[in-house]
Design a protein that fits this description.
This protein has 260 residues and is α/β, with parallel strands linked by helices. It contains eight helices and ten strands. The protein has helices spanning 23-35, 53-57, 60-64, 96-113, 141-147, 182-195, 215-227, 237-247, and strands spanning 12-19, 41-44, 68-71, 121-123, 130-131, 138-139, 150-152, 175-176, 198-203, 232-234. Helix 1 runs parallel beside helix 7 (215-227) and helix 6 packs parallel to helix 7. The longest helix has 18 residues, at 96-113.
């Protein structure tokens, strides 16, 4: 069987994604990405003053520099399972209707600041893709699939690498990078190359902030990707998702399935 080639002639694909619109993304991640001629995907929330406009406008220069801006919702609802406060109301207490309303309002806010964006991708807050409890637990992946071109979830299964043949564009696996060193992250990159898949690396704080990766480790990963351009395609999530979609590597009936 002929091996799937990414971007026409590459063995594998890598996307670098950044969650929560942190200051270290603007101050550290973006300059380092540009130093190595790479582009990432920045998932930010449309919350705060003026219907989130101020928070979103902070990333206009990032978008104009060629990076992807993605939708990370408004309220960043996550599971309450590990929260000890009795009155906390996370995803277990939400409904599909509430999630749809949340995502549609977020979509309006993002489009008001980034009207040029033709296709949007979404990032599930805390990697959670469900609402409700027990018999009432439901996946909201189909709602995301109805409103976004692609979406990044977590790496719940043992292998976080996405297959070009079987992955669900609306529930993409990703690898949590916090507290990981350069050697481990580069090892994942090379494992991805050996398997011929697509790995999505999820970063939060770069040298500062929560869920940290050291600046030096992050830069070492970028230098490795820069040196591997002839065999590994590093690009924003939307570009690789579009490539998979357009090259029809996946069966059509896999889109929009639940990963919960």
């Amino acid at each position: 069987m002929q091996k799937f080639l990414w971007d026409g002639d590459k063995a594998a694909a890598i996307s670098l994604t950044f969650d929560d619109g942190m200051q270290s993304h603007i101050d550290t991640a973006v300059p380092l990405l540009e130093k190595y001629g790479l582009r990432g995907t920045f998932y930010i929330t449309g919350s705060g003053e003026d219907y989130g406009r101020q928070a979103l406008m902070r990333f206009r220069p990032t978008y104009e520099a060629g990076h992807e801006i993605g939708n990370h919702s408004i309220h960043h609802w996550c599971s309450s399972a590990g929260v000890m406060a009795p009155d906390h109301r996370g995803l277990e207490y939400r409904t599909l209707g509430e999630m749809e309303e949340e995502l549609l309002e977020a979509d309006r806010r993002f489009k008001a600041v980034f009207p040029e964006v033709r296709r949007w991708t979404f990032c599930y807050p805390c990697y959670n893709t469900f609402v409700g409890k027990g018999l009432n637990r439901r996946s909201y992946v189909p709602i995301v699939a109805s409103n976004f071109f692609a979406a990044r979830a977590g790496g719940e299964i043992g292998n976080s690498i996405n297959s070009p043949y079987h992955t669900d564009l609306h529930c993409l696996n990703s690898f949590k990078c916090e507290q990981r060193g350069a050697a481990e992250l580069i090892g994942l990159v090379e494992q991805t190359a050996n398997q011929g898949g697509w790995s999505i690396l999820t970063f939060h704080g770069i040298g500062d902030g929560h869920l940290l990766v050291a600046r030096s480790d992050f830069e070492e990963v970028l230098a490795h990707l820069d040196g591997a351009r002839n065999r590994i395609w590093t690009a924003p999530l939307i570009r690789i998702a579009e490539y998979l979609h357009d090259n029809k590597a996946m069966p059509a009936n896999t889109r929009g399935e639940s990963c919960d």
